[in-house]
Amino acid sequence: MTADEIRGTIHGTAPVPLSVLDLVTVGAGRTATDALRTSVDLAKLTESRGFHRYWVAEHHSMPGVASSSPAVILAHLAAHTDRIRLGSGGVMLPNHAPLVIAEQFGTLEAMAPGRVDLGLGRAPGTDGATAAALRRTNTLNEGADDFPEQLVELTRFLDDDFPDGHPYRRIHAVPGPIQSTSPGGVQSPHRPPVWLLGSSGFSARLAATLGLPFAFAHHFSAQNTVPALDLYRESFRPSAVLKEPYALIGVSALATDDEKEARRQVLAASLNMVRLRTGRPGLVPTPEEAEAYDFSPMERDFITSWNSNVIHGSVDEVRAGLDDLQKRTGADELMLTSHAHSAELRLRSYELIADVYGLPTA
Could you tell me if 243 and 4 are in contact, meaning their C-beta atoms sit under 8 angstroms apart? Predict the structure, then answer.
C-alpha cells in the first residue's frame, strides 16, 4: 500500500479529484433492486468520466437506504467496473468482528486488485436499538469506546503481523498475506488502504496520530468540517502510509438542467431527513409529496439549516459552490453524494458536473 493508492488524480478544471458516495437510496414507488441497478449505472458512468473512487456506506433499519451490506454491494460493483476505486464510506467497525472485515475486504481485494478502499467509522449507522441488535449487547457504547483497539486488531489481521505470543498469532485472514508464505504461494502486493471516517474531532485526531487518510462527513456535520480538518492537519504524524495529511470531504450536491427541479428534489430529500430525525424513517418521498406536506415551523427551520449545506441548482451554481467549499476547507478531494427521488436526475447530476469541469469522456 502506497500513497499513490490514496491520492487521486485531478482531471479537467476540477480543483481536486472528484469521487462518489452512494447511499443506494430507495425512492417511493421503487424497489431495492431498482436502487442497486442505479448504483451499477452510476458506477459505470462515473468511472467513464474520470471520478476517482466510488464508496458505499453502511446503514441499517432505514427503508430508504439499501446499503446495509457494503461488501456485498462492492463485490457487485467490482463485476461491472474496471478502473474506479471501490470502497466503504464506511464500514461501522463496532458492528463487526475485525477478522470478518479483514476477510471480506481481503476477498474484495482479490476480486479487484489494487482498487479497494476500507473506510471505517465508529458510529452504528443506525438507531440505538438496531445497534444493540447488531452488536448483541444492551450496552450501546460498547464497541465505539473500543474503536482504537478494534482498529489495531483489524490492521494486524490485514497485515498478518500479530506478534509472537499473541492469542491470534496463528489466526489468519484469508485471502491475505499468509498465502504468500505458504509453499508455492503467490499473493498480491496490494492490501486495502484503511481510511478513518468521522463527523467530529475523535477520528480526525486518531487518523492524524496513525498517519492515515481521513474522510469527513461534511454533508451532515458541516459545522465541524473546518475544525476537524484543522485538527487532523495540525496533529498529523507521517507514517509508512502517508508522509503528508490527505483529507476528503463528503459533499451533498445536485445539479440539474432546470434549477427549479433541483429545489424540488432537494425538498423531497429534506422531508426524508425530517422523518429520519424524528424516528419515522421511510422511502425517499416524491417531490409532489414533499410539496404537499405541511411542514411545522420547527421542521422548516430544520430544513433551512440542513439545505444550507446542500449545493444544488444549475450546474454553474453547483460548480461555484464546490469550488468555494474546496477553497474554504482545503480538502484534498471532494466526494459527491446526490439526494433525489429520481434515479435519472441523480445520474444526470454527475454527468453535468463532469461536463462543467471538462472531465474525460471515456
Answer: no
